[in-house]
Amino acid sequence: MSDEALRTILSGSDLAVLATIKQDGRPQLSNVGYTFDAERDVLRVSVTDSRAKVANLRRDARATVLIQGDGRWKFAVAEVRAELFPVCTSPDDASVNELVDIYRTISGEHPEWDEFRQAMINDHRLPLHLHVERLYGMAG
């Protein structure tokens, strides 16, 4: 399968299954919303600091992402390396600004950006970048 066809699947969705590695070696699966930055080959995600996936990625940055295509047997699997940003602490810090950009890319404008920024701090959220290292799947 061509990488171009598989990247089309990555670009055509905003929901994926993220598999991280638990301490006992088994996978921990999470549904995540994302946006794909094709120029940098990075999936960008908003995550909460207290979640298992974040603890797993702090311990082991390797992960795998499954994105379902528009047909029953169309899918892309990206083996990725995780980059966790700092937890949001201020309405105008780099992490909050990145989460604003992720939200805006996926959903458009928020009706109240000040409330959104404060919620990112209150929820202990942080940006997660998943750098694509290998891509495989079926594109049709």
From TrEMBL:
This is Pyridoxamine 5'-phosphate oxidase N-terminal domain-containing protein. GO terms for molecular function: coenzyme F420 binding; oxidoreductase activity, acting on the CH-CH group of donors. The keyword Oxidoreductase applies. Residues 3-135 form the Pyridoxamine 5'-phosphate oxidase N-terminal domain. PANTHER family: F420H(2)-DEPENDENT REDUCTASE RV1155, HEME OXYGENASE HI_0854-RELATED. The keyword Oxidoreductase applies. Keywords: Oxidoreductase. It comes from Luteipulveratus mongoliensis. NCBIfam families: Rv1155_F420 (TIGR03618). It comes from the Bacteria. GO terms for cellular component: cytosol.
